[in-house]
Design goal:
The protein is of the alpha+beta class. 57% of the residues lie in helices and 14% in strands. Among the domains are: 160-171 and 178-241 and 445-486, no CATH class; 245-377 and 400-427 and 505-621, Outer membrane efflux proteins (OEP) (Up-down Bundle).
Length: 623
Amino acid sequence: MAKAQSKLYLLILALSSVLFTQTMCTPTKYRLEADKAAKAIIQEKQKQALGKTEAFTIERPSDILRRRLLIAQELPYSSEASLSTDMLKKIDHWPEEDYPRKEPSSDHIVSLTADGPIQLSLTQALQIGARNSFEYQDYKENIFQSALSLDLERNEFRSIFTGQVQSLYESDSSGKDTVRGVQNSAELGAGKTFKTGADVSAALAVDLAHLLTQGGESSLGLLADATISIPLLRGSGRHIVTEPLTQAERNVVYAIYEFERFKQGFAVSIADQYLAVLEALNNAENAEKNYRNLTAVVIRSRRLADAGRLSEIQADQADQKELLARRRWISALESYKNGMDSFKASLGLPPDARIELDRAELEKLLASVSEERAQDTIGEKENKPTGETPADLTGPDRENAGLLGMNELRALQLGLENRLDLSISQGKVYDAQRAVAVSADALRAELTLFESAQIGQSRTIETATLNNAKLRTNRGIYSSLLTLDLPFERTAERNTYRNSFIALERAVREVQKLEDRIKLNIRKQLRAMLESRERFTIQAKSMQVAEKRVKSVTLFLEAGRAQIRDLTDAQEDLLNAQNGLTQAAVDYRLAELEFQRDTGLLKIDEKGLWQEYTQREIKNDKH
């Protein structure tokens, strides 16, 4: 009776284990566990790397702007993959019926209308890029995957539990009589690797062997064993054993640094393209206006030529200028359209989506630069020659360099302190140093102590006639083994060790090269800000002169004291001055942003919006 109960117990245990696995350990559960582990690591490393934590997820809303535009504006697309993964048809044997799932966004950055294009401000463009950009998403997924890799390395030092249930039926006809039997087994085990290198494992196995012939004999087996392995020379020591874990920890920090650095460059790139598109639109409008003006000039010149008041040569010159103006207008218009398409693609939006940019952004920029530059020029002395005395020429100086025109030494110090890519490069020097130590350890002899203990006995169908096994410590098997692997052959390890020094030298050179590039870029941006501010002033004065010149030439032409060519040249110079003024304002704004990017001072939040260097910090750093 007891034997039958034992057999029934093992059978119930086996079935229960199967049911537990099927009901509790589902793919959804494992995915959610991975998400939880990765997010916890990311928050931990954000605090370590940036001194703060912020919302982070790789799950994008199913109704991002890209998808909404494709549907609302009825844009062509190739398949459901063009929309998102939740729109894909589930294939056979798909593990999760409701994942990926539709998850609408809680807030929409822009609203779509039934007809007409949508208008984007610069702030909206930054937010949309953070949600829709393919490259942006790639960087976020890199962080997530590095966190999963770290979780796997940490798992190497966790306590690992295992369980196994087996049921074996065997029929042996090799002897005089056929022997049939069933063996049910269950085993529970646990193991742990310590950061010192010691590896410990233990297991308890229960067997029930039952004969279906020869009287139905059965026997219960109990077997417990434990082993410990301790490296004493090669491969021992916390710094050697935990090296993969240490590198995985640092890789997550590097991924966070790389993402922050990418966000800075991405935001500046979006601003660059946004303003470049508005500048191209402004140039196209100026070119159109210039074309219309020259068309009027041509009509007028033809009337004067027909009346004999103007030579054919001058009339033909006007015709040529008109044709040139039309070509410039068409070229400027196409340049604007191409720039607009490229900008939409950079945001992760369909290039054929109907989108317009807010022209007020350019007007605000021109107004702000004009006001800032006007404040700088108050009290400035006019640098003009008087009489025959040559002017005392002086170039632009830092006093008129704008809000960010700080002392060069301070700017360089800020760059070296705040550039995250420099922190990564410096960290890789430490990584290379550790690689030298690890490769040196591989040159040593390998000495390992192995201990094992086993008590009890297992049962099989062949031993089913024996008495039930018992756990008796005085009747166990105990062993100790000490192995020594002498370092006679270490050619591969020797070469690895030598190469580790080369890798260290390269890592040091990378720091030096990056440091020089940072200094080069910062010095360049300081000059760019100064030059573009001065150029804005020059272009503003140039446009005033060009406007005055067009008016005066028009009056002189009416009085017969000027030629058509004078007017067409004046119109062309006005066009160049208008475009130059816009370009100078845009260049200055971009130089400010690029300076903050190159010094690492530009902060980007989780929404993709920037926080520029504060006025208080600027005032402190200008002295």
